[in-house]
Amino acid sequence: MVNALSYVVVETPHLQAWIDQARDHVGLQVEVVEPQVCVRLRADEKIQRLLVTAVSGEASMGMGFEVSNAEEHTRLRQVLEAAGYAATDGSAEEIARRGVAGMYHFRDPDGVRIEVCHGLGDAASPFVPGRPLGGFRTGDLGLGHVALITEHFDELSHLYRNLFGFKVSDHTQAPFRVEFLHCNPRHHTIGLAHTGGPAKIYHLMLEYNDFDDVGRAYDMALEKPESIGVTLGRHINDHVTSFYLKNPDGWMFELGWAARTIGPEWQVEELQGMSLWGHDRTWLPDHKREEARQILKRLAAEGVRAPVVIPSHTAKARP
Q1: What is the pTM of this model?
Q2: Is 311 helix (H, G, I), strand (E, B) or coil?
Q3: Inside any domain, residue 193
Q4: pLDDT top residue among 289 and 13
């Protein structure tokens, strides 16, 4: 069973732009592995949470999911291969750059590279953010969550639920079909959406410890309004207050705060919408944007609201 989203791997033709945004805007720590070739981005005490490598061709993003030990690593590989997924061992260089004890990888039905690892190591030095901030909420909850727009909704749901051991948190049909899945107390680690468009990475959510760090990131984004893919708002299901920042490869960081956690007594529900307020999705077709606006108006008229549960801090920055 998968325990968490451990890290993300990025290949990009825009390495320097990634470094600048990750350090100066998002607030991640940049550590150079090989100048102009590869950097590790840190969000906490771990050796890396994003591994970013320069390429001359198309950009891509893959995910590294962590299991508890070597035995579970082997068991899950057997499950995957029995289901028809061809797993390949990570090379010595790949394993060393990720800082894990072991890793293999395969392609999901949309062609996204999925890595399964164990033993992500700690860095040799404390976490120092790229700009002054209160750190990121990670720990046992993992890096954050990833949302995917998929052309193979049922096949991906099967992969995560029946092979990786994720459980459904909630789901909705409007303004498009979405399923939210969890593998630990974080409300969801994976979101699957079928919008009618081509498969792509939609966003990676990073959760700040402090609300002010969301606001300051939003201030910076407002200086370049075209960088905002989804405006400031609050989600109806995980209660995160966030906005979405376009990264140099065109998909987005969701920069948020105060996600709820869930336990074994969680009851799956069908959502009334995607957000309580805000979150205008500038990328949606006009008719879908209007549908989303009408959902927000209905929720407001009904007085639907959610409590704010302030999370405990993890991975605080060094003073």
Answers
A1: 0.95
A2: coil
A3: yes
A4: 13
- Burial of 225: CB neighbours in 10 Å, binned 0-12, 13-18, 19+: exposed
255 pLDDT band, cuts 50/70/90, is: very high
Question: What is the torsional sign of CA 287, 109, 190, 145?
Answer: negative
Structure tokens at 53: 């490598």
Domain that holds residue 29: 4-121+135-302
| Helix, strand, coil % in the chain, rounded to nearest 5 | 25, 35, 40
Whether 149 is in a domain gets the answer yes
Extended beta strands in the chain, E state: 4-12, 29-34, 38-42, 50-54, 60-66, 88-89, 102-107, 113-118, 145-149, 167-172, 177-182, 190-194, 200-208, 228-235, 241-246, 252-257, 269-270, 275-278
Euclidean distance between CA atoms 284 and 224, whole angstroms = 20
Rounded to the nearest 5 degrees, what angle is found at the Cα of 47, between the Cα atoms of 45 and 49?
A: 85
Domain count, the chain: 1
pLDDT digits (tens, 9 = 90+) for 161-206: 999 999 999 998 877 789 999 999 999 999 999 988 899 999 999 9
Q: Is residue 290 part of a domain?
A: yes
Q: pLDDT band for position 319 (50/70/90)?
A: very low
Those residues with Cβ within 8 angstroms of residue 77's Cβ, 6 or more apart along the chain or in another chain: 87, 104, 116
CATH code of residue 292: 3.10.180.10
**Separation of alpha carbons 219 and 198, rounded Å:** 31
Residue 247 is assigned to a structural domain of this protein = yes
